[in-house]
Structure formats: structure tokens, C-alpha cells
Amino acid sequence: MEDYGIQSNSRTTSQSKKSSIILIGCLCSIGLCMSACYGVLTPFFPLEGSIKGLTSWQVGLVFSVYEFTVMCFSPIWGVMIGHTGSYFLYVAGVATSLCCNVLFGFLAYCPSQWYLIMCLTVRIVEAMGFSAAITAAFTIIASKFPDRIFTVIGFMESASGLGFMIGPMAGGALYQLGGFPLPFFTCAGILLLILIFSGTVMSGIPQTMATTEAHHIACWRLLTAISVIWSVLLVASGSAFITSTNPTLQPFLSTFGLTPFQVGLAFTGMGGLYAATTPIVGPFANKSSRTRINMIMISAIALAFVTFFLGPAPLSGLSPSLIRTLVAIGFFGISLGVYHVPQYQLMLDNAFRSGWPDSLQTHGLVAGLFNSSMSLGATIGPLAAGFN
Fold this sequence. Notes:
This protein is an all-alpha fold. The chain contains 15 helices and no strands. It has helices spanning 2-39, 45-51, 56-84, 86-105, 112-144, 149-178, 181-201, 213-223, 226-243, 249-254, 260-285, 289-309, 322-340, 343-353, 360-385. The longest helix has 38 residues, at 2-39.
């Protein structure tokens, strides 16, 4: 009987590990795919927008409105997840993004006078789905893997970075192969497959919980804490650095005679190195709060330094160089990976210090705030760059 009990426990442990690996794989796959869907239009949309009569600022607005919507809705989903549960929010978010990719593909046939309005509308709704799915994913990570948060977040951020790498490259190739609709229809098909698989795997995830008045008071205390505001600004500034290249890098690289596919390849340097960096720095971020702060400070200085030489800045006195631009893009990815991974735990620690329990509601709020902070910077970056 004892041997049977030992074998039973061993089998249960093995099944639990297998389930955890499958769940992590699902979370990483959706992070990869949705990041790829976000960046798939980067190599060709500035060109398509100019054909439809859009200015550089309006192209930047199409990029920025996506992140602005994520910024606005992530905290809302973070609060709502206590009522809806993470599984429902995840499935609804992925399904919404899927439908919007199909709709965006058909915008190739939209009249010029309606083109900007329709692009903004579809991007806003798609961003609502994206923010819901990613907020749910971060909540699932924090609640299911409390002792391995950084490790799992590192894998997910690595997958997202890989998506940012693949998206522009695949977008440029598919655009040259089949025109404007093909990249978006391809994304929709992949999202459908992931939705079917991950929706089945995650169907057993809990959960709703009541949101009390005390929770709302703690929420506002968290959002007004100086340390949280400072962390929000840090995350936002990093996102602003990296997304400022979205509306401007493609025209700049085109001056070197690069095709849309080659421009997509140029973007892969940033995403690839980001993907390689995040799982490496995750264990270091686990060590202590001081280590996390040092990582953020060093990487922030690196981001500012690289930004100065990207282009380059007029004060540098340097002339444009394709090699230097590609190297700068690569260092962007490395610095951003070091910069972002420690931020989530800092916000979560502050939430616990502010009186929130270690619960789904807390993880949902912090996940929403983290995503919102990243999107705040990603909103400012393309808009500011569009004024050049």
C-alpha cells in the first residue's frame, strides 16, 4: 500500500509538472503571436499610409492609439478580472484580436477619406482585446507560479520579444508576397489555432472573487504611492524610447535602399536580442530589491546613450550610417530586456506593502498597471516621433 501511495504521488507530481509546462507554453505562444500581430505592419504601413494620403504624424497616431487604448483599458481589466475570472478575459481578448486582424486586412479596400478613421477604430478594438489577454496572462503567471514569477515572466517576455522580431520580418515578406491583406489574414489564422488549443488547456483556471470597498481604497492608495508613480514613469520612458522608431525607422532605412522585407529584418535585431536577454536577466532580478533597482538604472542609462546615436542626433555631428543604426537597434533590445523584467515585481511588492493580499485581485491590478505603464510610453513615443 505504501508503494502504491508513493507511485500515486509521483504520478500526480509528474502530471502537475506536465500541466505547468503546457500552461507556460500556452502563455508564451499567445505572447509571441500577439506581439507579432502588433508589429506585422511596421515595415509597410508607413508606405501604405502615405499612398492613402496620411501624414507622418497620422501614421504615428495609428501606432500610438493602439498603446493608448492598452494604457486606458489594462487597469480596467485588472479590476474586472476579480469578477470575470482570468480564463474568460483571456479567451475574450484573443478572440477580439483575431477578428480585428481580419478587419484590418480588408482596409486595403477602404476609400482614402475613411482610411484613417477606420484604421484607428479597428486598432482601438484590437488593443482592447490585446490588453485583456495580456492582463489575464500576467495574472495567471502570478497566481499559478508565485515562486517562479521572474522565470515564467522571463520566458513570456522572451516569447514576446521573439514575436516583435518575427512580426516585422514576416509582415514585410507576406506584404511583398500577397499585398496588404495577407499579413493580417495570416495572423488571424494563427490566433485561431492558438485560441482553440490554449482555450482548452486553460479552461480549468479559476475564478472570481468579490471586490470589497476596502480593496478599492487600497487600489487608489497603490495608484497614488510615490514609489509606484516613479516606477510607472520608468516603465513608460523605456517604452517611449523603443516605440518612437515605429513611424520613422522605416522611412529612414528606406533612404539606404532597403526593401520592406529588409526593413523587417532590421527590426528583428531588436526583438531577437530582447528575446535572448529576458530569460537571462530573470534570475538576477529574483535576488533582491536593490539588484532590481540597479538593473533598471544601468539599463536606463544604456537606453539614453543608444538613443543619442540612433539616427544619429544632430548634436553628435555624425552622418547617417546603416551599420550604426543596426547596431543601435540591437542594443535597444538588450537594454530594454534588462529594463523591463524587474519592474513587475517592484510594483507587486509595493501592492503588498500597501495592504493588498496575495490574491487574484492584487495580481490583476498590478498586471493591469504594469501593462498600462508600458503603453503610456508606447503612446507618447510614436506621436512625439511623428512631429519630426
